[in-house]
Amino acid sequence: MFRRIAISCLLVLMALHAAAHTRPHYGGTLRIEIEGDPWQRPDGLARRLVLDGLTAMSADGSVQPALAVDWKPENDDHRWQFRLRAGVHFHDGTALNASNVVAALTAICGAGCPWTSVRAVGSSVVFLSDAPLPNLPQLLAEDAFRIALSGAETSTTPAGSIGTGPFQFASFSNGVLTLVANENCWQGRAFLDVVEIHPHRSIRDQWLDLSVGRADLAEVPAEQLRQAHEQRLNVVVSAPASLLALTVSDSGALANPNLRAAIALAVDRSALSNVIFQKQGEITASLLPAEVTGYSFLFSTERDLNRAHELRGGVSPPTLTLVADGGPVMQLAAQRIALNLHDAGFNVQVANAGAPQHADLTLRRITLGSSEPGPALESMLRATGLAVPVLEQTPAGLYKVERQILDTHMVIPLLYLPHAYAVGGRVRDLRLGFDGTPRLDVVSLEDAP
Fold first, then answer.
1. For the chain, which domains are there?
2. What pTM, to 2 d.p., does this model score?
3. Over the stretch 293-302, which tens digit does the pLDDT of each residue have?
């Protein structure tokens, strides 16, 4: 009996020790390296840590309360009222209220907002629209509509960097952006004390710093996933989260819909997937991934050069300009597309992103905005410059809208790609959201005090 009691006590002590060992610790500095700009809109990493929206997306992509605790539609979705959370303060101590939310939203999009007007009514923010906005709660969860305190910038604080999020701006020195935990965050304090973001670092340098302990989190582009596994990096990979798409101008020579259709038929998606992106992600001709809608197989991904030549009808359009929005890999993909179009009788010149000249074609990556089909489709259309309200939420209605848009050939979906990060050994509980971004508010460090 005594032996059994002793063994039982030992097992309990071991379980308690294991639980203490796995319990998240507060403290420590997480070091992140990225290729891009942490403040870039709409999905810069720092923006996600510093700024909150009226609503937010959960890990599975469903909408949930954030700075607004609830909302209700009226007048057939032409009017929405969002009631603000009480007791929330910006990082400088300013109380969150309806007036500064309205000022922030107006500064974001001005006359180009999806709604017609927005105004403060007591402790609520009211949106009015000439057209129905059935997906407004999901729309307001997007990074583009995160709330920053307007007019609070100082000589040491960047514009748009005072928010209500779990981390607040501390400094930008020697190329390193430092964020510190918001002790009074309405969501509760994050486990980490400090997040350091080192921008504009090449993937090679990121992986090297990760291997020697100078970084805790590094990016893994989809086309280098296989290489990352070969190097035995600890990689966290999302589901398909961003769409590689070609947007096509409808002006000049490409005002001819047959020429746009010929371009869509000439692109070789399989070559892009196999050669450039190393068979990662999914080949698609749909704006939304298969797991979101279930109908993406109805859009053909096959290349048809013969039909492309027929549609071109012997017309020799002037040289078209193709701009790739991104780094070297996007440039390679653009060069491959230019070769595809040459086979169909088009002369295409690839230009650097940011070039002042007019772009006939633009290759870009668009992050999935929601896991709900209706809001995701509306977000995707807005990102491509085709701001079409999605009123029908049934699969048949969504398919009809998507078919109508894709039949214009002003946007040509190509591939759905995952997001991935390589994680250092001391990082615990890193998760990626449905859109592939790391959720750092729940991360802790193994060696934190």
1. 29-47+165-238+419-445 (3.40.190.10), 52-145 (3.90.76.10), 242-417 (3.10.105.10)
2. 0.86
3. 889 999 999 9
